[in-house]
Every structure is written in C-alpha cells, then in structure tokens.
Specification:
This protein is α/β, with parallel strands linked by helices. The chain is built from eight helices and eight strands; from the N terminus they run αβαββαβαβαββαβαα. Helix 4 links the parallel strand 4 and strand 5. The longest helix is centred in the C-terminal third of the chain and has 17 residues. The protein is globular.
Length: about 240
C-alpha cells in the first residue's frame, strides 16, 4: 500500500519479496481502468487491490488522499471537503499518505478536522527522507493513528522495500478493506542497508520529474484529464466542488 506502477516485472518483484498483496493506486487514472488492471495482474500468489490516490485541491494547494474500497469513481481536482464527503457517502476506507510532506499531504490540522473519517496514516515510505520521515512517525504516534507502510513505488525497484503485516488473513480485496476499517493489529516493516538508501534517493529524485516535465505535459500539452471533475464521465456530479 500503495504502488503507482503495475506490470509483470512488478508482480515478479512483489512475489520475490514475499508480498501477498499490493494496492495499485496510480495518479490520474480512472477507477474502472484501475480495477481492470488490478484484476489482470492478480493471481493465487498475489492479490492486487484497486485504490485511488485522490489529488484534492489545486496544483498550488494540493492534498493527496488514498482511498480503498470505492464503489464509484471520484475525480481529482475537487475540494478536500468535497472528496471527504463523497468518500464517507461510499463508506470507503480513507488513508493519509505521506502526512505533512511538502505541499501534497494532509497536515496534522487536516487529520484532526477529518479524524472520524480517516482509517490510517502512513508511517513510512521511501520518499520520506530524514526530517520528513521523522515528522510522519511523530504524527502517527502523537495522533495514535493505525499506521501503514508503503513502498509508494513510482519505480519498479521500490516494490517490496516496505510492507504492512496484518495479524489476519487477507485473501480478497474485501478482507483488506475490513482490516483497515477495523483498525486490525499490524506492524510496518522495511528493508535497510545501502541498497535501500539508494532506492530511497532514486524515488525522491523522481519527484523532480513529476514536478517539472511531467507537470508541464499534464497542464499544457494534454487534453482534459480522465479524472478531471468536468470530464464527461462524471456527468457534472462534482461541478459544485471542482477547483478548476
């Protein structure tokens, strides 16, 4: 929980690392496509659970929210309150990835405001270097949030670097949803050593690509995002909370 890439190489790496499940939650991809891809790569050895990392707010004031167990698609670029209200309506599991990280995350104030709707907070992912990692752990510990860990893999090499181990069986997507919603006992583990540190640096460096050429391409060179709230797929249901 959670990866941005999914192909045969990712599946092989996950199995080699001893993982039983992955949450596939790419940015700017609609839920039906995520579900189809997750089903394609699931088998008896590895469960791939569809999720959505929602991009709420504007580019300049964006906050990411990880959702698992969605019934219906939710677009990006809507207000945080609008997203939280819709997630509550669908009774989805709501998770806070990389808390307090740069300008892309829920803050301690956000977590306090929406505490009754949030089921877990990320305690570790490879992108959280030094100070950011300590801040995430402090937020989890001070708020006594159920923790989770993620490879947050934008790069295939990061898959299996971090994991969340539950004390109950997770064999279906519904099992994971229930475990998260129930606050089931779990531990967060990760690899250590020089190789892990190098992979952390590679993931952090990938932020430069995401926020430079990738951002320019998305904003100016492509058409309407498939997850834009005014896309025809959403039939105008989110126009009142759209920020663009």
């Amino acid at each position: 929980m959670h990866v941005k890439v999914l192909d045969e190489a990712v599946v092989e790496r996950a199995k080699a690392a001893g993982l039983d499940a992955l949450v596939y939650a790419p940015h700017f991809v609609r839920l039906p496509e995520i579900r189809e891809r997750a089903a394609t790569y699931s088998d008896d050895e590895l469960l791939v659970v569809p999720g959505r990392e929602l991009f709420t707010g504007s580019w300049h004031a964006r906050k990411h929210v990880l959702a698992v167990g969605l019934d219906e698609p939710i677009p990006d670029f809507i207000t945080l309150e609008g997203a939280m209200r819709e997630l509550q309506r669908q009774d989805a599991v709501v998770l806070a990835p990389h808390p307090g990280f740069l300008n892309v995350s829920l803050t301690s104030a956000d977590l306090a405001a929406y505490g009754d709707r949030i089921h877990g907070v990320e305690a570790y992912n490879p992108k959280l270097l030094a100070r950011a990692g300590r801040r995430a752990r402090r937020i989890v510990e001070e708020g006594r949030w159920p923790p989770f860990g993620s490879s947050y893999a934008h790069l295939r090499s990061s898959v299996g670097e971090v994991w969340t181990r539950f004390e109950r069986q997770v064999e279906r997507p519904e099992d994971l949803v229930d475990a998260l919603r129930d606050g089931a006992p779990r531990t967060v583990g990760r690899r250590t050593g020089v190789r892990h540190q190098l992979r952390r640096l590679a993931e952090f460096a990938h932020l430069g690509y995401e926020n430079s050429w990738s951002k320019i391409d998305r904003l100016f060179l492509q058409g309407t995002e498939p997850t834009h709230p005014r896309h025809i797929a959403y039939e105008g249901r989110f126009d009142d909370v759209a920020v663009y």
